[in-house]
Write a structure and sequence with these properties.
Radius of gyration: 18 Å
Helix content: 55-70%
Order of helices and strands: HHHHHH
Number of strands: 0
Number of domains: 1
Shape: globular
Distance between the termini: 47 Å
Structural class: mainly alpha
Number of helices: 6
């Protein structure tokens, strides 16, 4: 089970691998959409917490959801007459796919072909007993290390406003 920082870190790593291998830079907005896509499938938590439903890792963790988001974003950006509409839409889509891949390799797996009630996981039924608290602490640790790395490389800068 991976939490938000883990998904963001994997999307960030793969975005950097793309930049290095293709020798092309991802724009600032492109990075925004890649990282949003990296956490977007977990929006189902809002519905689960609000309506006490057990829908986590179903619809939003499927290829169907990824394709719907791709189609809606392509149309929306086209209507907005955005120059980089395809780039932003594809990066959002790739971010979602990265999220699905990370969740696929976890113990729980995902319903990649939703609405088919088949959970895909490489472990296929083998359970590993790791408490969610330990995983949450691991995720926060990864996130903290990532933020310090960005600060060290000066890719994340905090500006202090001067009081008048």
């Amino acid at each position: 089970m991976t939490f938000a920082f883990g998904h963001l870190i994997f999307a960030w790593i793969l975005g950097n691998v793309y930049e290095i291998s293709s020798k092309k830079k991802i724009s600032h907005y492109g990075w925004l959409f890649l990282l949003i896509g990296g956490v977007l499938p977990d929006i189902d938590y809002l519905f689960e917490w609000t309506f006490f439903s057990g829908i986590h890792r179903t619809f939003t963790h499927s290829l169907f959801f990824a394709l719907i988001v791709l189609g809606v974003s392509l149309i929306t950006f086209k209507l907005m007459d955005e120059n980089n509409s395809k780039e932003y839409s594809y990066l959002l889509f790739v971010g979602i796919l990265i999220h699905l891949i990370v969740d696929f390799v976890s113990v729980q797996g995902i319903m990649f072909f939703w609405p088919a009630q088949i959970y895909l996981t490489p472990l296929m039924g083998r359970m590993i007993n790791i408490s969610s608290y330990k995983l949450a602490v691991l995720d926060m640790g990864l996130g903290t290390i990532w933020l310090f790395y960005l600060l060290f490389k000066r890719r994340l800068v905090f500006k202090v406003a001067k009081h008048l």
